Amino acid sequence: MAITTLAQLIAAPKQHLTLFKGGTRTVAASIPWTMFDIAGYPPAGTLAIGNTANGVVHTAAITGYPAINTFNATGYISKVSFCGVNAGNNINRLKLYDRLFSAGAYSFNSNVSLTAQPSYAGRVPGGDYKGLEIWLETVTAFTGSQSIAITYLDQDGVSSVTGTIATGVAPTVGRMFRVPLAAGDSGVQRIDVVTSSVSTVGTFNVHVMRPLWHSGTLGNTANTSSMEEIVHDLTKTGLVQIYDTSALVVTQSASSTTTAALDLLIEVADG
Description:
- A hairpin with a 4-residue loop joins strand 10 and strand 11.
- It is globular, with a radius of gyration of 18 Å.
- By secondary structure, the chain is mainly beta.
- It has one domain (about 15-270).
- The protein is built from two helices and 19 strands.
- The strands form three sheets. Strands 2, 4, 6, 7, 9, 13, 15 and 18 form an eight-stranded antiparallel sheet that branches. Strands 1, 3, 5, 16, 17 and 19 form a six-stranded antiparallel sheet that branches. Strands 8, 10, 11, 12 and 14 form a five-stranded antiparallel sheet that branches.
C-alpha cells in the first residue's frame, strides 16, 4: 500500500539509516567527491568494482552501503538529518543516490564492449528510466586530462553515445564526474561500451545512479567551528521511493580543499 496521506505517514513503521564518515580527503573545491571508501559507518567500501566485462548491480548487502531492513510494503525517505559544518571544513552540498549499476575499474586506455550486463530494472520505480545519471569515479590517480566516451541505451532503450568528455584535469582518487547524456536523452537503461584515452596512468569506475535527495547549497560558513544540524522533512525529501536492496551512496562537494566529516541520518517510512 502506497503512502498517500499524512496520517498514513505518521502511522507507518520507520527505520533509521546512518551514514557516518569520520575521515576526510584532500579535494578540489566545489566539485563532487565520493565518500564510499572513507572509514566510518558503514565501513569503508572498495572503490575498484572488480568487473569490467559485464558490470554489477550493487545492493545494500555489500560492504560500504548501509543495511536496510526488509520492507513490509514500500519504502520512502521521509526525513534526512545532517550536519553542514565540522571544524571549519565546509560542506557545500551533499547528494544521496541509489547506485544501480557499476563497472570498472577501467584503465586509462580502455575500449571495452560490455556483455551480459545485469538488469537494475527492479530498482527503477514504475519502470521509468528518466532521471538516471551516468557518473565516473576515479579509482587511482591519472596523469593528464582523461577523455571518455560511453555508449548506452537511453530511457527508451535506443542506443546512444555521450560523445567524448574531457575531464580537463588529471583526476585524483575519489573525484566524481557526471557524464552529460546525448542531446534529447533523459535517462539510462544500460551501459554498452566504455572507451578512454589521452591519460597515461589511472583507473576509473562507471556508475549509473538514481538521485534521491540533496542538501541544497549550504553556503560558506568557514568561521563556524561547531556542528550545525539541519533537518529536511517530507516537504524536501519528497517521500522518494527506495528499496530494501538500494545501494545508498553520498557525494560531497566542499567549499574548501578538504571534505568535512559526514554525519547523515535517513528516516525511511514503510507503508
